[in-house]
Design brief:
416 residues; Rossmann fold; Helicase, Ruva Protein, domain 3; four-stranded parallel β-sheet; two-stranded antiparallel sheet; 4% strand; elongated; TERF2IP_Myb; BRCT_dom
């Protein structure tokens, strides 16, 4: 009975750039083995690399000459002598380090957990599609020691395919590692200044109540009350009463001839007829209501199209306050619909509710992109409310109708 092929049931992965890669692939396939297109981190897969590129000893990462030696001997050889020249690392027993597709760097489970934790913190659990801009932000925050392109490919081809339970285990491993505590330094303990005790000041005694009214100077004695006349002209001589408790101002009324002339020629001379002097109670003029020349703080801000100079100013402010490069600041400003405050929070590691992802933009344009801008705001919001209520369970978050409406107007302005 013929013996089974030498590598039957075994899977190998050879990173691009490995010396003798094509020769080893031919030997493996000729003897019943299979070639994987990427490293999956499973114990059923063996990674073959150049000996000088192996950073840690692991039974799952062997030198590439292992294949040729096995074929020459006609049997599966022991793998200890092909595990590289580095010393044994206790960490490799529990979490083996696997290379990326380039074969130059390998990810640890702690780094995978850091990437998954960063995704959950920025985009929420369950996010699948990540753009390269997102991983450029991750590289700027030093999530791992790998480049943005490497993290993007590793997440897209490996981490996104893991089960939720596997992702949760990786995140818990990362949070229990020293790298998690190092990424969140403790708050500085500032010295507390000595505060003098507060002593209540003694209350000042109240001034004594006045027993006599103050002296009144140059007050004209009011005349006797005249009988009410039905003549319309007599209405000018009636006292004017104010309902509000205002100070009393005593004035002298001009006679009819002087009123018709418009002014008294000798205002310094006193009128001999004291009977015509009356007391007129005048109330101070009411303060007019302020004219709404500016928008009230309670009014919703008016969104306008920013000029090129305004956009350049916002970009400079974002780069100065966050230290991020120009392309990342531009991406954050687009996700925030042009709001610099929201973009700054996004760059500082937060996820404001009015910040949008590429998947959410696609969902908005698919459902509402065909709505004409000529439709009224109420008609568009009615359609948005209907779709949001219908797909409530399918969305990763629950945006308000106003948020979706403002994002739609922003995207329509971009595509116009």
């Amino acid at each position: 009975m013929a013996s089974p092929p030498l590598f039957q049931g075994r899977e190998f992965y050879i990173p691009p750039g490995t010396m003798g890669r094509a020769h080893a692939r031919g030997l493996i396939q000729a003897h019943g083995g299979t070639i994987a297109t990427f490293a999956n981190g499973m114990p059923t897969q063996t990674v073959l690399m150049d000996r000088h590129k192996i950073e840690h000893r692991s039974r799952w990462v062997l030198a590439i000459e292992y294949i040729e030696d096995c074929v020459r001997e006609g049997r599966i050889l022991e793998f200890e002598s092909y595990m590289g020249d580095a010393e044994w690392s206790p960490a490799d027993v529990n979490m083996p380090r696997l290379p990326t597709q380039t074969g130059r760097k390998m990810y640890t489970d702690v780094e995978r957990g850091a990437m998954l934790a960063f995704v959950d913190e920025r985009q929420g659990p369950g996010s699948s599609a990540m753009s390269r801009k997102f991983w450029e932000i991750a590289a700027a925050h030093n999530v791992t020691s790998h480049s943005a392109s490497s993290m993007h490919e590793h997440y897209r081809k490996q981490l996104v395919r893991k089960l939720p339970s596997e992702k949760k285990a990786l995140i818990e491993l990362y949070e229990a590692s020293p790298a998690f505590n190092a990424s969140r330094p403790p708050l500085a303990q500032l010295p507390l200044a000595a505060v003098a005790p507060v002593v209540a000041a003694a209350r000042r005694p109240s001034p004594p109540a006045r027993t006599t009214p103050p002296a009144v100077i140059d007050v004209v004695t009011p005349p006797q009350k005249k009988p009410r006349s039905t003549d319309a002209n007599d209405d000018d001589h009636l006292p004017v009463q104010s309902k509000s408790p205002s100070p009393v101002v005593v004035v002298e009324e001009l006679d009819d001839t002087e009123s018709e002339d418009g002014a008294d020629e000798n205002p310094d001379e006193e009128d001999d007829d004291d009977d015509d002097d009356i007391e007129v109670v005048q109330s101070p003029p009411r303060r007019a209501a302020p004219v709404a020349t500016e928008r009230s703080p309670l009014m919703r801000p008016i969104r306008t199209v920013a000029s090129d100079a305004q956009v350049d100013r916002m970009m400079e402010q974002l780069k100065t306050s966050t230290g991020m490069p120009h392309n990342i600041c531009a991406h954050a400003l687009f996700c925030a619909s042009g709001n610099p405050r929201t973009a700054r929070l996004y760059l500082l590691g937060e996820m404001p509710p009015d910040c949008w992802t590429a998947d959410e933009d696609t969902w908005i344009m698919r459902h509402f992109g065909d709505l004409s801008e000529a439709l009224g705001e109420d008609a568009v919001k009615t359609q948005i409310r209907h779709v949001v209520q219908k797909e409530q369970g399918k969305l990763m978050r629950s945006p308000t109708v106003q948020m979706v409406f403002e994002r739609l107007r922003f995207l329509q302005g971009k595509h116009s």
